[in-house]
Design brief:
The protein has 660 residues and is α/β, with parallel strands linked by helices. It has 4 domains: 2-100 and 195-241 and 394-441, Rossmann fold (3-Layer(aba) Sandwich); 107-176, no CATH class; 244-388, Fumarase C, Chain B, domain 1; 447-658, P-loop containing nucleotide triphosphate hydrolases (Rossmann fold), CATH 3.40.50.300. 47% of the residues lie in helices and 14% in strands. The chain is built from 27 helices and 20 strands. The strands form 4 sheets. The chain has a 7-stranded parallel sheet with strand order 3-4-2-5-12-1-13, with helices on both faces.
C-alpha cells in the first residue's frame, strides 16, 4: 500500500493533484486485511480521506491475487459513473497488473431492442417532439455498445415514453426473445461475467439479493466479496427490495399490454378488450377508496382493519375497500386464465401470465396484512398511487442472505458512527461483533483551522410558532457576514419554503430554492452565481459537492429527526420499544446524528476550503442528547459569536456592518 499511496508511490507519480493522506493508507491496509482474513469491515472515512481509491486498490489486489470477483456497490448511479469513467481507468493505467471491470445498472436504464421494434407500429408517442426523440433513439441503439440511457445527453432527462421501450424485467421475454443475443442486457451480463471488478448500485445489488436462489435465478454474476460505498443507505434500500409493491401504473400497464397482444382470433381479441375495460373500471374504484389522501403527496399507514373488520358478533365483515379489492382480484384472475390459453404459442402472453400472477400475489400480500413483521402503507406521488409493504427489521434478513454467505463485506461512508461508536449501524444491519472489524479513518482536513461551528445564543424551541422568525433573523445575519455563499438546509419542505420567503426579501444576494428547477440545474446555477444562497431540503444533504469559497456556510435549521408519523419510522420505533429497547435513544437519535453529519459534510470538500457550520436548533445545548450530536461532528471551535465566524472567513469588517 505504501508503494502505491506513499509520497513517492505510483499514484503520486501519475496524479497531478496528489496529496499524501495517512488515513487513506490505513484504510487501504484495513480493507486488504479484511479480504485476506475473510472478515467484514466497517470504515467511517471522513471527507478528504480518499476512500474511493483506498478500497479500489485492495479490491483489485484481492480480485487478482485470490482469483475472485468483487462487487462494488455505490449509493448512486452518479458515483457508479465516476468510478467507471475516472477512477477505474486511472488504476488500469498505472497498476502493473492488468484487471478488467464492468458496470451494471438496473434494467430500466437500458433500451429494449424488441420493444423499440414493436413501438414502430404502436401508438406510444404524443406530439412531434416525441417523434423526433424516438427517431434519435432508433438510430442510437444501432450504434450504442451499452444501450444505457445516460448516453442520450441531447434528450430530456425524463423521456415520457421511455417506460414503454426500456428493458425492465416485467416485460422481458428472456431467451425466447428474438433479440436475445444482441440484447443490451445480455451484453451487459456477458461483460460482467468476464470482469474482475463489477460496479453496481445499491438498488441493483439488493434487487439481486432478494431473488438470488429462487426461481428467477440471479441478476449479478457470482462474487466472493462486496464493498458498499455510502453504506449508511443500506437499511432503507434493503427494506424496499425485501418488500412488496403494487400501483395504479402497474395495473394500467398490464391491462394495456394484454389489450395489445398480437392475437389473430378476432373473438378472443375482442374479449381481451372487454376484460381490459372492466379491470380499468374496477381498479379505478379500488384506488378511489383511498380518496381521503388523494389531495396530498406522502406516505399513509394502512390500518389493520382497512380491508376487513370484526362485527360485534365476532364475524369478519369485508369493508368497502375490501370488496373493491376482491372484485379487482377476481377480474385479474380471469385475465390470467385468458392469457394462459395463448401462453404456449405466444411468448408475450407467457410473460404477461407471470406478471399478472406476481401482481396478484403482491396485492394479496399487502391487502391481507398477514405478516406481522411487515409495515403496510399507501404512498402517493403525483398521479401515482403505490401500495407497499416492507419488513420492519432487516437485520435478520441481511445476516441470513448476505453476511453469513459472503466471506467479506466492506461498508464505508463518511457517516457511519455516532459518538465515535458503530453500535447503531451494526445493530440495524445484523452484524456480529466477532466477525466484524471497525475503523475510523482520519480525515486529511484540519477542521480546527478550516471550520467553525456556530450555535446562536438564544433560540426558541424548534416546535414553537416563532422559531421560523428567529431562524430567519439568524440566517440573515450569517449570510451577511459570509457574503452569501451559503446552503440553508431545512428538514422539511414547509420549513424550507418559509425560510426562503422570510430571508430572500431581506438580503441583497441571489437566492434560489429547491423545486424551482432540476437538482443538477440548480446546483450548477449556484456554482456559477457569485454570492448565491440556496435553500434546500433532504436531497441536498448528501451527494452534493461544491468546492472553494463559493460555499462558505452551511446553515441547518433543525436536528434532522425522522418524521415520527412516517409509517416505516413509526413501525420501527414501536418494534424496538416492544422488544425492550428505548427507541428514541436506540434509533431516533443515532439516525438523526448520521443525517446531520451528512448535511455538515457539504461544507469542507478540500484542504483549502474554509467556512462555518451554523446549527440553529437550541436542543444541542438544552438537551442531554445534544452532546451525542456535537461529539459526532468534526472537532473544531464552537462559538456563539458572529465575530468568530467572520474571523475564520477573514471578513472581520463585515461583522461591524451587519451583526448589530
Amino acid at each position: 500500500m505504501e508503494e502505491i499511496f506513499g509520497e513517492n508511490g505510483l499514484i503520486a507519480k501519475h496524479h497531478k493533484d496528489y496529496e499524501y493522506r495517512g488515513g487513506q493508507i490505513k484504510m487501504a491496509e484495513a480493507v486488504l486485511r479484511a479480504f485476506e482474513q475473510k472478515k467484514h469491515l466497517i470504515v467511517e472515512a471522513g471527507t478528504g480521506t480518499g476512500k474511493t481509491l483506498a478500497y479500489l486498490v485492495p479490491a483489485v489486489a484481492a480480485a487478482l491475487g485470490q482469483k475472485k470477483r468483487i462487487i462494488i456497490s455505490t449509493g448512486t448511479k452518479n458515483l457508479q459513473e465516476q468510478l467507471m469513467g475516472k477512477d477505474i481507468p486511472f488504476l488500469q493505467k498505472i497498476l502493473p497488473k492488468k484487471f478488467s471491470a464492468a458496470y451494471m445498472k438496473g434494467r430500466s436504464n437500458y433500451a429494449c431492442l424488441y420493444r423499440i421494434g414493436k413501438a414502430e407500429n404502436q401508438p406510444i408517442l404524443e406530439g412531434l417532439d416525441e417523434m423526433d426523440s424516438f427517431e434519435e433513439i432508433r438510430h442510437w441503439v444501432r450504434e450504442s455498445e451499452t444501450g444505457d440511457k445516460s448516453e442520450l445527453v441531447n434528450l430530456p432527462e425524463n423521456i415520457l415514453f421511455w417506460n414503454r421501450i426500456n428493458a425492465k424485467a416485467e416485460t422481458c421475454l428472456g431467451q425466447k426473445c428474438p433479440n436475445f443475443e444482441p440484447c443490451f442486457i445480455t451484453r451487459m451480463r456477458d461483460r460482467a461475467e468476464d470482469a474482475d471488478i463489477v460496479i453496481v448500485n445499491h438498488h441493483l445489488f439488493f434487487a439481486d439479493l432478494n431473488i438470488r436462489g429462487n426461481e428467477y435465478g440471479r441478476v449479478l454474476p457470482d462474487y466472493a466479496a462486496v464493498i458498499f460505498d455510502e453504506a449508511h443507505l443500506i437499511e432503507d434500500i434493503a427494506a424496499d427490495y425485501f418488500g412488496f409493491e403494487t400501483s395504479n401504473f402497474q395495473i394500467e400497464e398490464l391491462v394495456r399490454d394484454a389489450d395489445t397482444l398480437p392475437i389473430a382470433d378476432a373473438v378472443a381479441s375482442r374479449d381481451f378488450t372487454k376484460l381490459a375495460a372492466k379491470i380499468i373500471g374496477l381498479a379505478d374504484q379500488f384506488w378511489v377508496r383511498f380518496a381521503q389522501t388523494r389531495g396530498q403527496d406522502g406516505r399513509f399507514p394502512l390500518l389493520p382493519n382497512s380491508f376487513a373488520q370484526k362485527s360485534r358478533g365476532g364475524d369478519i365483515q369485508t369493508t368497502p375497500l375490501g370488496e373493491a379489492y376482491f372484485a379487482l382480484d377476481s377480474t385479474l384472475e380471469r385475465l390470467e386464465t385468458a392469457l394462459d390459453v395463448h401462453a404456449e404459442k405466444l411468448t408475450e402472453a407467457e410473460s404477461l401470465v407471470r406478471r399478472v400472477r406476481q401482481a396478484r400475489f403482491d396485492l394479496e400480500f399487502i391487502c391481507m396484512q398477514a405478516e406481522k413483521n411487515y409495515v403496510y402503507w399507501l404512498e402517493k406521488r403525483g398521479k401515482g398511487m403505490f401500495l407497499r409493504a416492507s419488513p420492519i427489521d432487516v437485520s435478520a434478513l441481511l445476516q441470513d442472505k448476505l453476511f453469513n454467505k459472503v466471506e467479506t463485506v466492506v461498508m464505508t461512508s463518511a457517516t457511519l458512527s455516532t459518538n465515535g461508536k458503530f453500535d447503531f449501524i451494526k445493530d440495524r444491519l445484523g452484524l456480529e461483533n466477532g466477525k466484524t472489524d471497525t475503523m475510523l479513518a482520519p480525515s486529511s482536513f484540519d477542521y480546527q483551522k478550516q471550520a467553525i461551528i456556530y450555535l446562536p445564543k438564544a433560540m426558541p424551541d424548534p416546535r414553537s410558532p416563532e422559531f421560523s422568525q428567529f431562524a430567519a433573523s439568524e440566517i440573515v445575519k450569517l449570510i451577511n457576514v459570509t457574503n452569501g455563499r451559503a446552503f440553508v438546509l431545512a428538514t422539511s419542505n414547509s420549513s424550507m419554503n418559509m425560510l426562503y420567503e422570510l430571508v430572500s426579501m431581506r438580503v441583497n444576494f441571489p437566492c434560489f430554492v429547491q423545486g424551482s428547477m432540476s437538482k443538477a440545474g440548480l446546483l450548477e446555477k449556484f456554482r456559477q452565481t457569485p454570492n448565491a444562497v440556496l435553500f434546500a431540503t433532504s436531497s441536498f444533504w448528501q451527494g452534493v459537492d461544491v468546492r472553494g469559497e463559493q460555499l462558505s456556510c452551511v446553515i441547518i435549521d433543525k436536528l434532522p429527526f425522522a418524521v415520527p408519523t412516517d409509517p416505516i419510522v413509526s413501525a420501527r420505533t414501536k418494534f424496538i420499544d416492544e422488544n425492550g429497547g428505548k427507541s428514541f435513544f436506540d434509533y431516533s437519535v443515532p439516525q438523526a446524528v448520521i443525517a446531520l453529519k451528512q448535511g455538515v459534510g457539504r461544507l469542507i470538500r478540500s484542504t483549502t476550503d474554509k467556512g462555518v457550520i451554523a446549527l440553529l436548533d437550541p436542543r444541542l445545548k438544552t438537551k442531554g442528547y445534544g452532546r451525542d450530536f456535537l461529539n459526532s461532528l468534526p472537532k473544531c471551535k464552537i462559538t456563539s459569536e458572529l465575530k468568530d465566524v467572520a474571523q475564520i472567513l477573514e471578513a472581520e469588517e463585515n461583522v461591524n456592518r451587519f451583526s448589530k
